[in-house]
Amino acid sequence: MPGKLKVKIVAGRHLPVMDRASDLTDAFVEVKFGNTTFKTDVYLKSLNPQWNSEWFKFEVDDEDLQDEPLQITVLDHDTYSANDAIGKVYIDIDPLLYSEAATVISGWFPIYDTIHGIRGEINVIVKVDLFNDLNRFRQSSCGVKFFCTTSIPKCYRAVIIHGFVEELVVNEDPEYQWIDRIRTPRASNEARQRLISLMSGELQRKIGLKVLEMRGNAVVGYLQCFDLEGESGLVVRAIGTACTLDKLSSPAAFLPACNSPSKEMKESPLVHPPSHGCRSTHNSPIHTATGSRLTQNFSVSVPTLIYTGMGSGSAGKEGGPFKALLRQQTQSALEQREFPFFTLTAFPPGFLVHVGGVVSARSVKLLDRIHNPDEPETRDAWWAEIRQEIKSHAKALGCHAVVGYSESTSICEEVCILSASGTAAVLNPRFLQDGTLEGCLEQRLEENLPVGCGFCHIPYDELNMPFPAHLTYCYNCRKQKVPDVLFTTIDLPTDATVVGKGCLIQARLCRLKKKAQAEANATAISNLLPFMEYEVHTQLMNKLKLKGMNALFGLRIQITVGENMLMGLASATGVYLAALPTPGGIQIAGKTPNDGSYEQHISHMQKKINDTIAKNKELYEINPPETSEELIGSPIPEPRQHSRLLRSQSESSDEVTELDLSHGKKDAFVLEIDDTDALEDVHSLLTDVPPPPGFYSCNTEIMPGINNWTSEIQMFTSVRVTRLSSLNLTNQALNKNFNDLCENLLKSLYFKLRSMIPCCLCHVNFTVSLPEDELIQVTVTAVAITFDKNQALQTTKTHVEKSLQRASTDNEELLQFPLELCSDSIPSHPFPPAKATSVDYSSFADRCSSWIELIKLKAQTIRRGSIKTTVTVEKASPMGEGNFRNRSAPPCANSTVGVVKMTPLSFIPGAKITKYLGIINMFFIRETTSLREEGGVSGFLHAFIAEVFAMVRAHVAALGGNAVVSYIMKQCVFMENPNKNQAQCLINVSGDAVVFVRESDLEVVSTQHPTANCQPLCAGGEVTT
Amino acid sequence: MTSELDIFVGNTTLIDEDVYRLWLDGYSVSDAVALRVRSGILEQTGATAAVLQSDTMDHYRTFHMLERLLHAPPKLLHQLIFQIPPSRQALLIERYYAFDEAFVREVLGKKLSKGTKKDLDDISTKTGITLKSCRRQFDNFKRVFKVVEEMRGSLVDNIQQHFLLSDRLSRDYAAIVFFANNRFETGKKKLQYLSFGDFAFCAELMIQNWTLGAVGEAPTDPDSQVDDMDVDLDKEFLQDLKELKVLVADKDLLDLHKSLVCTTLRGKLTVFSEMEANFKNLSRGLVNVAAKLTHNKDVRDLFVDLVEKFVEPCRSDHWPLADVRLFLNQYSASVHSLDGFRHQALWDRYMGTLRGCLLRLYHD
C-alpha cells in the first residue's frame, strides 16, 4: 500500500438545469478511483452547489496511481428514476507522483460530457501521500519525470542522455465491441476515453520502468500516439529519450541577457578532432534518377525512400564493407543500445558533432485483429523492423545515431503506413556515458575552433559516398568538407551561423490511387510511395533553391493514405547556412530548343524564376559575405551532372549550356521541361506567395534570424475540411486543390493575426488526413509571436562572444581514442534490392519472416555486446528523493480566472520557466446528434476545440501552473454524417505544465537599463491587445 | 472545391472590433463581408474575398457562442471556455448592451412584452435598424428589466452589479427600466422632439426623488425595513399630491402666488407680460398634473401633459430658456411665502423634480 490518494469535492458552479419544473438541479458527485467509489451528499435545488465534502481517501498501489485516472462524475439526483449524469472530470494524478512537480491539484475543472460538451465547473482538491517502496521488483515507476519538450528542459541540466525508450500497448477498441450495439453513444465514448486514459497511464509507467532500468530519471521528448485501427483494435505507443537530469540550483545563471530564452546555450559545440580529414560527405538530396525506374541508387541518396515490410523494399544500399571511421568510445557507448535514437530536436552545447542527413523509412502493413492484447508482438515487430531500417540508413551515412527521431502512422480501413524519420548524426559520447561525467562540467579553455559549422561537416567517407553529392570545403572554417545542401529533422543548432532569416517551405503532393481491397491495395500504395517521396523531395529542393537557401531544418514528411488517393505534405524551415556554399539558381531547359516561341516561353519563365530568387533573397535578407571561389577552390572536380536533376535520359549537356541564363559561375539546378507535368511543377513553384510584410513563418522552435521576441503570444488551431467536387479528378487538379487549400489556409492565418505584426508564426504544424472519399482535412497548430523590429541584436552578440571564451570542449580526450575501422558494424542486407515499381506480393510473407529473424539476430548480437560494456558509477538515486524537493508554492495566486498561456514551443518569450509541473496528456471525444442545431460541422468543431483548450488550461491552473509549453494536438479525428445530423470528433493533446515568471518581474533592477534604452525606438511598434 | 469546415480557434479568443460591430448591427455574413470589402480592407492587407469570408464566418461563430454568456455578463468573467483579457471582456459587454437612440425612442415606456416584440418589424422598417439588432436591443431591455425589477436597492447599482456595465450605460438602463415599469407615454407626436437623453434625465430625477427608494435613502440606516425600491413611484407621495390642488383651487392663494412671482420677476423677464397673462393657466397646468398622478393612466401621460400644459404654451410665446428657469425658480420658491399653504415639503419634493424635468424638456 504505497500511496494514499485524498480527494475533496468543494463546490460546483454554472451547472445546467436538470429539472425543468424547478429550473434547478439536485447535484451530487461520485468520486471513483480504481474500483473504489465515494459519493457526496445531494445538494438540493441549486446550480451552484456547495458540497464541501470530507476528504475521500483511497489506499492504493503506486502502480494503480500511475495507471488509473481519478474519475469524478457529477450527477443529478432523481428520486423516482435513474440519476442523470451531468458530466465527468478525469484527473491524471501523475504530476503528484514525483518530487519537484505539483504537490496539490486544486481548482475549477470544467465538467465534460461527450454529448453536451462542458456543463459547468467543479472545484476539487487532490493530494497524494506516497510511501517509499523499497521493493526492487516493483512494477511502478513513480518518480520518473516526463517531458514533451524535445530539448533539455530549461531548469534542468542533462547529466547523461541515455537514449531511446519505446513501448506500445494494444487493446480492443470499445467502439467496435459487440456491446457497443446496445449501449448509448455516451457510454461508448466514456468507455473509450477511460480506456485510453488507462492505457496511456500504463504506457507511461512501463516506459518509466525502462528508464529506471537505464538508471535515468526522466524522459524527454516524450511522444505518445494513438492508432485507431478500427476493427483490429487500438494501439497506444510512445517513444522518448531517457535522460538523467539534474535540477539547476541557480537557473538564473542561464538566463539570457535578451529576450531570447531559447538561446540559453551558447557554448561552442564540440568540434571533432582535425585528424579525421579523410572523412567524407553528405547528403544533398539531389539525386540522379538515371534509370527509367527508381533504383536503389536513388533510394540511398534520399534515404527516405526505403520502405520495408511489404517486401517491395529496395533496401538501403549497404554497398560492401562500410568504411566510416568512428571513435571507439562513441561506438561502444551507442552499441549497447538497440536503437541509438534520440527524440530530441535541440541539444546541449557540444552534443551534436556532425549531421549526416535525413533518414526515413516507411512500411505498408495490413491490419488484422489483435488477438492477444497482452502480447502486442506484431506491432512491436513492425516498428522494430522500421527502426532497424533507420539505423542502417544512419550507418550508411557514416553516423552512429539518429536525432530528431519521430514515428507516425496513417491508417485507412485495413491499410496502415508506418513511418519513421530522423536525422543521422554523430554525437559527442560524453553525454551518453556515465563514466565521463566528471569532464562534463569542467570548462576547459582551448584554442578557438570555428563555431557554428562543425555540425555541417560531413560524417561519411568522401571516397565512398553513399550517394553522389557535391562537396566543398566549409565556407566557415575552410578545413572540412561540407555538402551543398543539408536536410535535417532537428531544430537549428543555436550556435549555427545563419545568414538572413528563415522561412517555411512546404512541398505538397497528391496521387490518385485505384480503390482496392487488402493486399492489392497495399501493393498499390507501396508502388506509389517511392514516386511520392521522390517528388516531394524534388519540390522541396526546388523551393529551397527558389528561396536562395541551402538547408532545411525541422523537416517533416507526412504521407497520408485515403480510399482513392495518397497525399504527401512536407514542411520544413529553410535557412541559409553560412558554412554551406551559396546555392546555384534554377535553370530551365526546354526539350525542343529549335522552336522559337517555345524558347521564348522558356526564357520568360527563366526570367520569372530568377526574379523570384532575387526577390526572395532580398525578402529574407540573404546576402552572404562574398567569398571568392578561387580561395576555396573545389578540390573535387565534380562533373556538373551531379547537381542536376534529369527528368529523362534524353538530355544532352549542350542544351544546358546554351540556356545558361542564370547565376553565372554557380552550378545551377536544372529543370527540364519535357512535358506538361514538368510545366505544372514549375508553375506551382511560382504560385507560393510569400507572407505579407511583417510576417515570417517557420516550423521550428524559433525563427532563424529573429531573436528579439516581445512577450505577446497567440497559439491557435485551425482546421479545414474540403470536399473535392469533380468525380474524375486528375493528379494535377488534385495537386492544385491541395496546394490552394494550404495556401489559402496560410493566407487566412496571416489575415487573422494581422494585428500582431511584426510577428512570426513559429512551429507551424500541418497535419493532413483523408477522413472520407472526397474529403481532405488539414489541421494547423502554431503560435504567433510578436517581435521588436527595431531593437538591436547586440545583446545576443556579446553573449555569443562571452560564451565562446568559456567554451567547454574536451577535444584532447576525444583525440585519445584510437580511430578504428568498423566494417563489421552491420550485416549487409540480405535481400537484393527489388524494383520498387513491381512488387511481388506473394513472396511477402517469406521475406517478412526472414526479415524478422534477421532483426532478432541483430538484436541478440547487440544485446550480447551490451553485456561487455558494463555500466558503472551510480551517482544519484534516480528517484531523486528528498534532495531535490523544492516545494515552493506556485507564484500565481490570482483569485479570478488566471490566464494560462499555451504554446507549441519549449519556452515563453520574455519569461523564465521556473518549474515543470508534469505532463498533460488528454484525450477527449465529443459527439453530437444535433449537428445543425450546434452550428453545423464548423460550429461543432469550433466549440469542441475551444472546450479542449479550456480543459487543458483548467488542469494546468489546478496544478498551480500558468502555461503549457511544447503543446501539441496529436490527433484530431473528425467524422460527420450530415444526413443523420451527427458528428463525432476525437482529440488528443499533450504538453508540459509549467510555472513561468516574467523576466521583467525577475530582475526589476537590471531590466530598467535596457528598457530605457529601447523605449524611444519601439514607441511606435508596440502592439497592445 | 468547397470548404465544408473552416475554423480558427485561438488560445486567446480573437475579437475583431469592426466585425463585432457588424454582428451587433445585425448584418448577415454576406452583408458584413460586402461592407468590409467596401471599407478597403482587402487593399490594405492584400487579402482575398475568400479569406475575408472565412474570417467573418469565424468571428460570427465566436460571437454566436459568446452571446449565451453575454446574457449574464458575470458568467463571461468566470467561464473557462474563452480566454479573453478583461479589457476585451468589458468591451464585449458594453457594446452588446449599447443601443441605438432611434430604437430606444420607439420602445421607451412601452411594456416589454411579446406584443411589443411583434412590433419590432415595424420599428425596424421605420428606423432602418436591422430586425436582428432590434431584437437584441429589445431582449437586452427585457432581460435587464426582469433581473432588476423586483430587486431592492439602488437601480443603477443593481444593473451595474448584474450586467457589469459602465456607469453611463447603467444609468441609461435604469431609465429604460423605470420608463418601462411606469409605462410613460413617449411616442406621441408632440413628444417626438425629445431625445432619449431628455427622458433619461427626467427618469433619474424621478428615481432620486419620487420613488420609494428616495424616501428610504437614509445613509445611517442601510438595513431599514423600508421597501427600498427604485422602480416604483412612491404611491403615498402621489396620493398626497392631491393636497397641492389648493394652490389653484383657492382663488386667493392663486392670486397671492401670482403677485409674489410677478413682483419678484418684474423687469427681469423678457416675456414678463406673457408670463403675467399666462400665469394662472401655467400654474393650473402644473398643479393639475400633480393632482392627477394618483391614476395610473395619468401617470403614463405625465410627459404629454407637461409638454401640453407648460412647454408648448411657453414655446408659443417664445420664452427664452433663461426666463423659463427664472420663472420656475420663482414659482416654486414663492410658495414658501404663502402662509395658508401647509404642504411645503410635499411641494418641494414635487416641484424640485418637476422644475429639473421641465427645464430639460424645454427646447425645440
From TrEMBL, chain B:
Extract one GO BP annotation from the record: platelet aggregation
GO molecular function terms attached to this record: fibroblast growth factor binding
InterPro entries the UniProt entry points to: FIBP (IPR008614)
- One Pfam family name is FIBP
List the GO cellular component terms: membrane; nuclear speck
Give the domain of life. Eukaryota
Q: What is this protein called?
A: FGF1 intracellular binding protein
Gene this protein is translated from: FIBP
